[in-house]
Amino acid sequence: MPGTTLPPFPDDVRTHPLLIVDFELIKAGDREEIDRLWEAATTLGFWYLKNHGADQEANDMFDVGAETLALPLEERLKFEQGDNGQSFGSQQTDINPGKFLDNIEFINVSKDDALAYPRVVHLTYPSTINARMENTVAPFVRKSLDVTYVVLNIFNDKLGLPEGTLESMHAMDEHSACEVRCTRSPPVQDKEAMERVMLAAHTDFGSLTFLHNRLGGLQVMPPGHDEWSYIRPIPGHAICNIADALSIFSGGILQSNIHRVVPPPGAQAGYERWSLVFFTRPTSSKVLRALVESSPIIVDAVKKQPDKNFESGSTAAEWLARRVRNQRINNRRGPDTWTASRGTEHTPTAA
Ligand SMILES: O=C(O)CCC(=O)C(=O)O
Ligand SMILES: [Fe+2]
């Protein structure tokens, strides 16, 4: 539960170190820090972000998530996300194919709905969210987007794109699938449950993920490795990662890496696990393809990977709908639909 004292992350499990990027320094244009961000984004695609200034907004948003997930299930199910590829809403779900029922529960709030409130753009939400849409959800969305735009503008520059290209593809006032997600998973009681994956291997759907978590459980499989390693949560440090769209726009220069969530290790397993994410995703109408017309650096990158397809033929909206639709149990037709939901088509053995 947010706010309770949690046992420390254990020292006897395999972890993968991440570079630490200081948001204040990258915002101020510090060359060395910007190079560190670039190194992280083009190798593993994950990094810690400190001094991001969003702690208060994140804490308040965790409270909204806790209030919402404390509502009776029948109430939350009125806002359930449905089977048609819609990501916003609430969900209690099974996302482990053919094994166990996942008991991760989450609530997603659309950036468009949060910023337009009380006007409804996509969906309506439970009362606990409406009550704090203007004073908590929208400030968290704005803070997360401020951070995102600083990072996107740095990538824009490094990729040799005309000024403002990436920011304009993620414009705050245009419709997109950007969303806040607050997730809860229950304490893990027995040995069998310790073995199970809570959120199966996947890459993220959008452009940039800004993640706040308290307990361990997030794992990455770094390129060239065949084993999972935990990412150790560090208080006051968010975890950022590159997602599919940005990887495609950049011709694969930016890395969207596979990750998953397993029960928290050691004594942490006995606690509810909460996580809070802001997913920045491109404007819905943007086609996911390498921006070869706009940057010779991206042209070169694409030429060097002739076996990879950077022309998805999908808009951002279609891409997301495919992923979300195929992760819904009612739409599952077999292994292909499962694979189509994960973004792991090229690493099919990672579970
Ligand atoms: O809860 C976490 O630590 C990560 C969640 C995640 O990977 C996701 O929601 O895409
Ligand atoms: Fe993820």
UniProtKB/TrEMBL annotation:
GO terms for molecular function: metal ion binding; oxidoreductase activity. Residues 176-282 form the Fe2OG dioxygenase domain. Gene3D superfamilies: B-lactam Antibiotic, Isopenicillin N Synthase, Chain. SUPFAM superfamilies: Clavaminate synthase-like. Residues 328-351 are annotated as: Disordered. Residues 338-351 have a biased composition (Polar residues). InterPro entries: DIOX_N, IPNS-like_FE2OG_OXY, IPNS-like_sf, Iron_ascorbate_oxido_reductase, Oxoglu/Fe-dep_dioxygenase_dom. It holds the Pfam family 2OG-FeII_Oxy. Keywords: Iron, Metal-binding, Oxidoreductase. The keyword Metal-binding applies. Belongs to the iron/ascorbate-dependent oxidoreductase family. This is Fe2OG dioxygenase domain-containing protein.
